[in-house]
């Protein structure tokens, strides 16, 4: 038997916390009856439905994708834009992106059907490092990048201090290549941080997520994560 919020999470519908919200909203039923009991134990043979659609526990799967620019980090898009799901056409499980990358941002993206894993990876308290390489307009130096290391307020929200490495500067073309390490995931956070120090982003690529790196995976390609890689991510998150 499995607690109902865990059952929903393992079906790839939502995290355990979000599953409880679905239950309290009356959107979950068991054997045709609306479920309100958060501690209900799902037994073999029970029919669990979310929003009227029967769900089942899939084997959890985890994929690493090198997302190209021009794709939405979403399962679907009401505007008809290309989504990352089009890059994994033969995956049968109901996977979805862990967090998101902007339409014009490329790089490392994890997809899974494990709601608990998703919550673990995306919750700010777990402080999973994410490394981005940005091509920015202007000359990066210690002086103008220093505010990034002190923490700043972006769109009314405080962001934690970041780490940076200046990879290259090109005075003739007036641009720089900078690697920035953060552990949060606010919308457009990296772009907004660079913009605030006067270095607007021209191109952005996420190259590392926790212990994961792209390691030569071509743009638009994906691979399945192995047990060791998954364990390393989980251990990093739970050790914070």
Automatic annotation (TrEMBL):
Keywords: Isomerase, RNA-binding. GO terms for molecular function: RNA binding; rRNA pseudouridine synthase activity. InterPro entries: PsdUridine_s_RsuA/RluB/E/F_cat, PsdUridine_synth_cat_dom_sf, PsdUridine_synth_RsuA/RluA, PsdUridine_synth_RsuA/RluB/E/F, PsdUridine_synth_RsuA/RluB_CS, RsuA_PseudoU_synthase, S4_RNA-bd, S4_RNA-bd_sf. Pfam families: PseudoU_synth_2 (PF00849), S4 (PF01479). It is an enzyme of class 5 (isomerase). GO terms for cellular component: cytosol. Gene3D superfamilies: Alpha-L RNA-binding motif (3.30.70.1560), Pseudouridine synthase I, catalytic domain, N-terminal subdomain (3.30.70.580), RNA-binding S4 domain (3.10.290.10). Residues 2-59 form the RNA-binding S4 domain. Its EC number is 5.4.99.-. GO terms for biological process: enzyme-directed rRNA pseudouridine synthesis. Belongs to the pseudouridine synthase RsuA family. PANTHER family: PSEUDOURIDINE SYNTHASE FAMILY PROTEIN-RELATED, RNA-BINDING S4 DOMAIN-CONTAINING PROTEIN. This is Pseudouridine synthase. The lineage of its organism: Bacteria, Bacillati, Bacillota, Bacilli, Lactobacillales.
